[in-house]
Amino acid sequence: MLIVIAALGALGGCAGSFLQPAGPIARSERLIFLDALVIMLVIVVPTIIATLVVAWWFRASNPRARYRPDWIFSGRIELITWSIPALTIFFLGGIAWISAHDLDPAQPLASPAAALEIDVVSLDWKWLFIYPEQRVASVNRLVVPAGVPLRFRVTSATVWNAFWIPRLGSMLYCMYGMVGTLHLQADRPGNYLGMSAMISGDGFATMHFDTEALTPQQFATWTRSTQASGPVLDEAAYRALLRPSRAVAPYSYRALAPDLFAAIVLQRLPPGYGTAVGAE
Amino acid sequence: MHILGKLTWDAVPFDQPVAMVGAAVVIIVVVGVAALVLAKGYLPYLWREWITSVDHKRIGIMYCILALLMLARAFIDALMMRAQQAVAFHAPGYLPPEHFDQIFSAHGTLMIFFVAMPFVIGLMNFAVPLQLGVRDVAFPTLNSVSFWLTATGALLVNLSLVAGEFSRTGWLPYPPLSELAYSPDVGVDYYCWAIEISGIGTLITGINFVTTILKTRAPGMHYTRMPMFCWTSLASCLLIVAAFPILTATLAMLLLDRYAGFHFFTDTAGGNSMLFMNLIWAWGHLEVYILILPAFGVYSEVVSTFAAKPLFGYRSMVIATMAICLISFMVWLHHFFTMGAGGDVNAAFGIASMIIAIPTGVKIFNWMFTMYGGRVRFTSAMLWAIGFMVSFVIGGLTGVMLAMPTADFELHNSLFLVAHFHNVIITGVIFGVFAGYSYWFPKAFGFVLDETLGKWAFWLWFIGFWVAWGPGYALGLEGMTRRLQRYDVAEWRPLLLLAAVGVLIMLAGILVQLLQLAVSIRTRAQRRDLTGDPWNGRNLEWAVASPPPHFNFAVLPQVNNQEPYWDMKQRAIDSGHLQTPEPHYEPIVMPRNSATGFVCAVFATVTGFALIWHIWWLVLLGLAGAYATFVVFAWRDVQEHIIPADEVARLDRANRAARSQALSRMRADELVVHE
Does B87 contact A at CB distance below 8 Å? Predict the structure, then answer.
């Protein structure tokens, strides 16, 4: 079992693995994952071994194995065969119930710091991150302060996508006209892979982005410098964003039209074009 | 409007070399086979004995052949995907996204609907009536209709290679991506109409087998004496009857959106795509159990036969089967925990999903205890069963992990999920149908498949599977999502290359299976099974000749316990009366062949194709033709034919003689063992 965990640890060397968590949510999810894995391996490994041993020992050519063709029922064994999986599931079910509530994406994180709100919009085929308090926006690059709870409001301007930063935690579907709430946090500064986890058309494979966690001071500096230069995200700029494009190099907007995110979610602005544009 | 609707020469992919090769292969295979059949003069034979046959055994065999053909096609898709991901690191690879997306969509669609489903249904068709001790299914002609409508669906999916394109939205067409606004081409229409038409066939199969199992069993075959495969087939068909109308209705709504401007799932004008997600999985999760339950039944038959013991804990197994059948209705939401439903809903569905692991675990333990105290023969069928048991528990383990909503938040839509369902579908369903294939092949054709090559095939599949999908689990944990046409993460590369090696090992397994079939047919004279009972079987299918006569049983057997044929053999051996007194033979009435199924499928193909391309006059023609077919069928004068008593007696006597010889040999062996 330790070997399995060590092997999983080795996997975690990757830029996008929740087995190397960089935030409280991913850390809790790794714990749940490992708990469930170990609890079940306790049953599964002996079952595999027993199956192979029984099959081999009772091979037809083994004269020492006793043939008992009439041994076809045992109440005691039935009790055990139903009890073992039942008790395991009872236990795991408890973990599932508690953790599903504790780690509900909509559940705010306990923290002395106030949460930073970021509105996420999936587009064809890029990501728009709107910072309503800072009144800036960023395309294909998510910049966040480390150690501060993050409150994402997630939607889509087009077909479904799933917003996912594995090392920070849970993924959530992005759906047009709907908002999902997701709370995450980065513990320390670093660069974490983010992506779409739901097929969304021809440009889907290029829908990944860097998540840059900065110190709060660096984040404040980034905010100021972003506010200082770049285009403005008004309705015309947003309509231009709706045009499909792939692998767009990250850039930012220095200012926002008021209530842009609400206009997108309430469908006051049109949806994206998707692959249809290519076909025309 | 154009007389051919949307169909023009632009539909043929002349400008895409890879797609053009696919189109050429389809045309060459179809035209080549047709030419061969005509040139050799096989057509009358095929028409009389197979195409118009309403014999459940023939229909079962045709289902299995269809499944094997589609397996070849869908496996080529798998090879292409693995090849693409092996080379597409920091590079576009050889498949552009619009083609890659069609390939993974076609792979999943074909593997589920036209490989796993027809194989499972084929085995059911072949074995269930024999095991029940009856002469045919409840509705033989409808059975033929079912098969041919399934073949229509498969044909339409493959036609998309030649004319137009296939869906690019995955094996389930999630809106709004599958709506007209985002998928304006005919790909999704090919998908929908192929599944709508074959889905009707599947629903009819469900009704047919529920009726057959509930209403037509040999005298004395109570529910508690039915072989396990019949029980699991019953459970599976009950699920078909419950689930397939949901699929039909859901796709009909999507089609209304696409064809008539409705807004069921558009996310605009009041529609909502989450509705589709719920509906499709209300069918989709049952579909998983529709596939796996009959496979469990095959394993029960195989393990019991080759351990030379009755199934351990039979009643427990029946309860477990029906428990899975019921609980599977209550778990669909676990396919979208990441939609944001909230703690209560996610936890409730997570726990319901985990509960399914309990009866499944019971089954694994009971198979193990069936082997305990047995005399295990490691035939290829038994190897598939043992390979299943050790692999499936791992698939079950990862399934329970995915059922934990909080773990799913990090695993959903990753390759971990994809590895999980390949784990349960390949090592569960596919190993099961392969076990059934080698187990019942001698019953169907009268000779045994080559066992050495069969074992090679098993080991190649088993090792190939783990080399391909072991890395899949690891890739998921490294954050790789499914359906990526290209990627830039260096850590994924070595594992993807390893997975490509794995799929090549599985390819070797398939080639060995083809070789096994060729070698076995060539040497069939030496492999002839005269007794009808090559494995020392326990249920009634082994009590008839191989291949069984058209009428299956000369006289319907009287069933007195759970393993009627084993019991018959034991009594004969113990008493030394190897020959029971000859029964009184009577003429047997059997249903006549009917072209209804085939003709109706021809019209269904025309209708489907015309609907896809908006050729409205042809739609009307096709529908009128299908309707006319049924009117003609309803007006038939003669629906049965009679097999005279002499003929029945002649066939049965030959079988009885071979059988009593075999029994006397067994008795001699038994005496040797006892000394």
Answer: no
| Alpha carbon of A234: minimum distance to chain B alpha carbons (Å) | 23
Assess whether A70 and A121 both reside in one domain: no
Report the alpha-carbon angle B98-B100-B105, nearest 5: 100
Nearest to B59 by CA among B154, B131, B128: B128
Same domain for A59 and A135, yes or no, is no
Torsion angle, alpha carbons of B613, B619, B621, B624, to 10: 160
**A142 and A241 assigned to the same domain:** yes
CATH number of the domain at A219, please. Answer: 2.60.40.420
CB B382 within 8 A of CB B431: no
With beta carbons less than 8 A apart as the criterion, state whether A146 and A215 touch: yes
Whether residue A13 is predicted with pLDDT greater than 60 in this model: the reply is no
* Per-position b or e across A123-145, b if 16+ CB within 10 A of its CB: bbbbbbbbbbebbbbbbbbbbbb
Overall average pLDDT of the B462-469 stretch: 98
Using CA atoms, how far apart are residues B174 and B107, in angstroms rounded to an integer?
A: 16
Tell me: do A153 and A224 sit in the same domain: yes
Q: How many residues are given for chain B?
A: 675
- Give the total number of structural domains in chain A: 2
C-beta atoms surrounding B507 within 10 Å: 17
A269: contact with B, CB 8 A cutoff: no
**Encoded tokens for B86:** 């092996």
**Which two structure tokens, joined as six digits, stand for B385?**
């069963």
Query: What is the distance in angstroms between the Cα of A136 and the nearest Cα belonging to chain B?
Result: 27
Q: Tell if the CB–CB gap between A37 and B312 is shorter than 8 Å.
A: no
The pTM assigned to this predicted structure is 0.95
Distance CA A125, CA A157 (A): 10
Instruction: State the nearest Cα–Cα gap between B325 and chain A, in angstroms.
Output: 17
Is residue A89 situated within a structural domain?
yes
Phi, psi dihedral angles at A266 (to 5 degrees): -80, 5
Question: Given an 8 Å threshold on Cβ–Cβ distance, is A78 in contact with B101?
Answer: no
CA-closest candidate to residue B438, choices B235, B292, B301, B538 = B301
- What residues contact A280, with CB distance under 8 A and at least 6 apart? none
Query: The CATH number of the domain where A77 resides is what?
Result: 1.10.287.90
User: Is A218 a domain residue?
Assistant: yes
Active-site residue B439, yes or no?
A: no
Whether B77 is a known active-site residue: answer yes
Say if residue A45 is in the same domain as residue A181: no
Tell me the two tokens of residue B633. 């069928």
pLDDT tens per residue across span B195-243: 999 999 999 999 999 999 999 999 999 999 999 999 999 999 999 999 9
In this predicted structure, what is the pLDDT of residue A202? Answer: 93
Coil vs helix vs strand at B505: helix
Give yes or no for a contact between A196 and A164, defined as CB atoms under 8 angstroms apart: yes
Q: How confident is the model at residue B580 (pLDDT cuts 50, 70, 90)?
A: confident
Q: 10 Å Cβ neighbour count for A215?
A: 13
**Terminal alpha carbon distance of chain B:** 87
Same-domain pairing of A136 and A256: yes
On whether both A147 and A195 belong to a single domain, the answer is yes
Phi and psi, residue B123, nearest 5°: -65, -40
Q: How many CB pairs under 8 A join A and B?
A: 310
Its domain, for residue A41, covers 18-102
User: Which residue, of A102, A125, A154, is where some domain finishes?
Assistant: A102
Q: Mapping DSSP to helix (H, G, I), strand (E, B) and coil, where does residue A114 land?
A: coil
B198, with CB counted inside 10 A (0-12, 13-18, 19+), is buried
> Among the three residues A102, A135, A154, which one is the final residue of a domain in this structure?
A102
> Does A157 reside within a domain?
yes
**Torsion sign (Cα): A271, A275, A278, B2:** negative
**Is residue A111 in a domain?**
no
Q: Are residues A207 and A233 in the same domain?
A: yes
* Residue position matching structure tokens 């009536």: B129
A18 interface with B at CB cutoff 8 Å: yes
- Label the pairing between strands A208-214 and B640-643: unpaired
